[in-house]
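Can anyone check this?
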Amino acid sequence: QFHGRGRYTYMSGETYEGEYFQDRAEGQGTYEWPNGETYAGSFLNGRRHGFGVQMFANGERYEGFWKDGVASGKGRHFWPNGDRYRGEFKDGKRHGIGTFFYADGRRHFGKFVNDEKAKPPPFPQNYNPLPDDGLPFTWRMTKEHPDIEQERDMIAGNVDQSGRLLSKDGPFPLSADDFLVDGMMANGRSEIE
């Protein structure tokens, strides 16, 4: 029975080197596959669990949290072409809030569902944006602000040239924790898909 540190090579050619507890990989260790893939990080009950880094045979890399052997929680995924993703994972897929950075400099921030960018919900028929805003998204306040009585007090989606949010009375300071944007902002313009 393995207990403590050790190295084991399986009949399949896979190897594990690291900490054991009652014959199972538990604690910190490194697992290697014959195809060149490696995982270095935390194990629990013989499975990847906790923080770890997986290097894939195709050149991709995942750094982040694992649960029961699959990527789950916060993490980062890198592709050989320069694309990368930073955000939430569930069951080994991009799932939750995250940012996809394209190699050409574009980026997409938003919700991902089962590895796909989630489409924003359609606006209701009675949606009545402020006059002349012309932008297909709204600000939803997640904190109360004494200067804003209701959502319509905001000029939906307008920013000045420095990227500051504008209210009906001029620049309005907010942090990213104060609001959610349905859609995407980049250089003062929306990028809805």
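Reply from J.R.: I decoded it. The domain at 4-117 is CATH 2.20.110.10 (Histone H3 K4-specific methyltransferase SET7/9 N-terminal domain).
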